Amino acid sequence: MSLILLIEDDTAISETLSEYLKSEGYTVRTASGQKEGLQIFQETAPDCVLLDISLADGNGFSVCSAIRSTSETPVIFLTASADEACTVAGFEIGADDYISKPFRPRELSARIRNVLRRHTSAPKILRCHNLTLDPAKALVMKNNQEVFLSALEYRLLLLFLSNSGQLISRDRIADELWTISGEFIGDNTLNVYMKRLRDKIEDDPQNPQIIRTVRGLGYKASES
Predict the structure, then answer these.
(1) Where are the domains of the chain?
(2) What does the alpha-carbon distance between residue 75 and residue 98 come to, in Å, rounded to a whole number?
(3) Which one, out of 62, 181, 190, 198, has a CA that is 20 to 30 A from the CA of 69?
(4) pTM for this predicted structure
(5) Which CATH code fits 3-121?
(6) Predicted confidence (pLDDT) per residue in 80-139, tens digit
């Protein structure tokens, strides 16, 4: 049963919406302001947050930013404002959806199901040292800066980070790269790809910490 955190300072709306969501099978926690909402969020780790923009002791944008600093929990903004600037601002700070008041409860319920489905089916973000790889976006970041990789370099890194701590043989790597490139990958070509990848992701390519060489056997990605 999914837990919904509703942060809404209008008591009537909060009570009505809470009862409706419970009738739809959700567990619901409510908060009327920014401070209370963030406290409940930290205590309960909800599956989805419904968030009003106008709050008594702050605003929904600040709450969403605080949530995004530590969590990928889906956030849906509820607001009386249909202003385009507010919509854009909400998405830019990480909102998953945006619905204007007044709204039909069934529409909101459908949107909750959609963001929960996207969230649970989204590939896990892979991390190693100061590097992150988001398979859903094919995005690689190092120290919060995007790293631009070729298709083969990206596929190679994805293979390592998806199997961190495991030995990956050179034969397996060649098979993986051959599948995507459509041409045979020999030892010399693999050495070139490994050097290019390490030059982009390692702080010190001559002393790699993310992808280590296991002499005579292959390579292994660090688990931390």
Answers:
(1) 3-121, 126-221
(2) 9
(3) 198
(4) 0.56
(5) 3.40.50.2300
(6) 766 667 777 777 888 888 888 888 888 888 889 988 888 776 667 888 999 999 887 788
